[in-house]
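Encode chain A's predicted structure.
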Amino acid sequence: GLVKAAEAGKVTPVYIFDTTNFKKNHIGLNRTGYFRAKFLLESLADLKQNLQKIGSDLVIRVGDPVEILYKMAMDLNASAIYASKEVTQEETDVEANLSKKLKPANIDLELIWIATLYHARDLPFQINFLPDIFTEFRKKLERSAKIRRTFKTVEKLPAVSGIDLGEMPNYADLRIEEQVFDSRSVLDFEGGETAGLKRLNEYLWQKDLLKNYKETRNGLIGGDYSSKFSAWLSLGCLSPRKIYEEVKRYEAEVTANDSTYWLIFELIWRDYFHFVALKYGTRLFKASGIRMDITKKWKRDYNLFRLWANGETGVDFVDANMKELNATGFMSNRGRQNVASYLAKNLGIDWTWGAVYFESKLIDYDVCSNWGNWNYIAGVGNDPREDRMFNIERQASMYDPKGEYVKLWIG
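Encoded structure for chain A:
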């Protein structure tokens, strides 16, 4: 977006805190919880600093993006607004409403696809023919789609003028309660491109962890068992193509093995959920899921749900994972699959409550990955196996054989 806007001439970078993202949801939680908000504020502070280094700045506003951008475009006599193209309902509604408002003023809205490793236009099929099984999707892509190169970094921008820069909101402005850092956290996640590139460099080059990724990725404790890139990917601080290019460089200079491929494999999974969201629209967010399975009946037992949410089910492996999420904003992939399966399959509770809970809590919340994965685990999504259910005790004995993880979080 920035590259395209910079080509067009004078550019004013803007970020708007959309107030709808900071309201309470139907289970009484902030839609954006503390860890997500902290990561976002840090990312924006870093973006502002990086823009200042190349002569520009970041304009900050809080409110309704449609009204704010329209007024700003009129005041600045703008010819176009550039933004990333989104795929899920709330975001595409904002795009449509803004486009409609700008039309009479003859201002273009240029939406640029930036979210995925493979560009939406490069898929070897139309979106309505997206395979319903991941493996089929992956094989088609690997066989006949190319990954585009990353853009050159913009090195100079004109100064921002004729507009008030605005103030970065604080937690109180966003009505968010602050939490203290828990030293058991797998990483001290810091938002921003600078920290994201540092993590990429550390994981691949300094600590040389990539070559064992496939063997360690189901770990539960510490920063090294998996890449943890998801937090930076979720806000666009790191791009999947940048990661891909670094992995390819690592393969050329160090080693190419199952592990180096597996990191790219996980990026393709991330792509898949983006395209699933694009294909199925609002079905992703309904309890009947993308399969529109209305035969499954879900319980809406709020007290039982609270026990799950607070890590008080009495099932140690589930409780330890939920306590980690609540204390740090992060949970391993292995943990997520288990707690989601437990809520949907063992307790039979409406899985959308779990997805909404993750939306509030997860530092790396990504709308497509979160809702796509919950659909999958709840048995209303893309899982080719009917009614898969995790045996939690067996999972705990496989992935936490000495009980170290449970001990860390439950004591």
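The two ends are 48 Å apart (CA to CA).
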